[in-house]
Amino acid sequence: MVFFIIASFSFPTLSHELSNGYLTLKNDSGETLSGELLLKPKDIGQAARLDTNNDGNLTWGEVRKNHNLANSYIQNHLIIRGSETRCTVSVAPPSIRDISAESLLVYPLSVNCALLNEVSVRYTGLVSDFPTHKLLTSITLNEQTSVHVLDSELTFISVSPKNIHWGSQFCEMVYQGIWHIFIGLDHILFLVATLLTVNLLRKSKRWVKERSVKRIVKSTVILVSTFTLAHSITLTLAALDFITLNSRIVELGIAISVVITALNNVYPVIMRLGFVTFGFGLLHGMGFASVFGDLNAQSGSLVMNVLAFNLGVEIGQLAIVALLLPLLILLRNLRLYSKAIMPIASSIIAVIAINWTLQRW
């Protein structure tokens, strides 16, 4: 059973079923906006037909060579208006940025409008090819940030500094925290790998069933609380710019943390998991902070946005634990669990994480 759970998590990793992107806009003056549109290469490649030789392998050369196709697609599907008329959007050639285990194409945007007392965005990109596509959108006007999620059902938003309400923004940031847990597959697999042995005991160099449900729940609470405390610390400090660390190093460290945790289930060396979970949790918090930073959630409401985003992350994390823990309690009664299911599940996670490590090296 756990094998299929892990397989279901790993399948989107390999097939990229989840489709998500980011749009950030910030006014530089009364008539101009600057920002970025971040999309998965596969998504924009398929939608804008960048893979011109149709070999199913989108290369960096094709991305650069066919920028006119991407530019045309973005111009047709991202309509930005100011207070009176449609704005002119210029799309520069992209670069690549890694966010939460994925490489995204970053298209710099320059937007010219007649008047920017109000900004509206209509986005219809990718949803015809990827119906579940979501665009996480952050618009900053006069130091006031409004955050929204555009998808197939909500394609249009209108923003002005006067209608930005803290309650709606708080809820939106909570939602984004939850969403980023579920698209952050490296964080999910770390959590799953950490909990796969919570229902077992190590005796005479063998894994055996933990008979006490109370001790299983207690161990789970300790590990999850330790992980939560650690990544909350670094998420908050990094989001508030008290600490910084190269995102490439962070993403590499997160991948390695998943490898070590998964392999430790199969070949136990570290038995005091609380200390290790705390240390790795600090790294994962930096990963969440990089995602938070790409939402461009800054301005006077930064502290509130950090708290709301962190709350969303915890809600998403607890939802995963609530689904997994009862299953683990039941599975511990199967002799096959400690001998085959747990080692196989851990090995699958390790293989996926090793692949991430090589990609991020």
Automatic annotation (TrEMBL):
It comes from Alteromonas marina. It comes from the Bacteria. The chain crosses the membrane at residues 178-201, 221-243, 249-266, 273-292, 304-328, 340-358. Keywords: Membrane, Transmembrane, Transmembrane helix. This is HupE / UreJ protein. The lineage of its organism: Bacteria, Pseudomonadati, Pseudomonadota, Gammaproteobacteria, Alteromonadales.
